[in-house]
Amino acid sequence: MTQLRFESTVNASIDQVWQSITSLQGLTSEMMPLMRLTAPKGFKNLSDIYPRQKDIKSYVLLFGVFPIDTTDLHLKSLTVHKGFIEESNMASMNYWRHERKLTQLSASQVSIVDELTFEPRRFTKISVYIIKKFFEHRHKNLKKLFEESAHDQ
């Protein structure tokens, strides 16, 4: 099993961060232009699938266009202003767990931590490299997103 950890501090309220990290629009902003997840019609927020424990079938699209993986997105937990634990079945993985934790540092600062545990089915070294770069990209986009929203206010 491989474990990776990513941490960023953003200048935003816990409400702003929570809205972003749980909405389809916010998740897409984090991932693009490298990747995008498809979602069923009507899906707008992670709360649409939790607490009902309804998995959603999603395609992972490279550059938002080319299908490279499939996932049955499953949330084990979703706690408002605290984070979520996702354990999904993925075509490319024997095991996938993504835990995202939020910590309010002040009224206008939040720590975002992503902890990943996974086991690729094949091409382990390149898979680990790609996932590492992808989550670095996500955290860079998170910082940029909240930096821009702070300037807009």
Provide a descriptive summary of the structure in words.
The chain is of the alpha+beta class and 153 residues long. The chain has one domain: START domain (Alpha-D-Glucose-1,6-Bisphosphate, Chain A, domain 4), CATH 3.30.530.20. It contains 3 helices and 9 strands. It has helices spanning 14-22, 24-31, 124-152, and strands spanning 2-10, 35-37, 56-62, 66-73, 75-79, 83-87, 89-90, 93-106, 109-120. It is globular. The model has no long low-confidence stretch (mean pLDDT 94).
- What is the H-and-E element order? EHHEEEEEEEEH
Number of folding domains? Answer: 1
Q: In angstroms, what separates the terminal alpha carbons?
A: 43 Å
- What fold name stands as the CATH topology? Alpha-D-Glucose-1,6-Bisphosphate, Chain A, domain 4
CATH architecture: 2-Layer Sandwich
- Give the strand tally: 9
Radius of gyration: 15 Å
How many separate helices? 3
The whole-number mean of residue pLDDT values reads 94
Strand content: 35-45%
Low-confidence stretches: none
How many strands, which pairing sense, and closed or not: the largest β-sheet? Answer: 5 strands, antiparallel
Secondary structure category: alpha+beta
CATH class, named Alpha Beta
Q: Looking across the biggest beta sheet, what order are the strands in?
A: 1-9-8-6-5
Short description:
This protein has 153 residues and is of the alpha+beta class. The protein has 3 helices and 9 strands.
Strand and helix layout:
Elements: E1 2-10, H1 14-22, H2 24-31, E2 35-37, E3 56-62, E4 66-73, E5 75-79, E6 83-87, E7 89-90, E8 93-106, E9 109-120, H3 124-152
Antiparallel strand pairs: 1-9, 2-3, 3-4, 4-7, 5-6, 6-8, 8-9
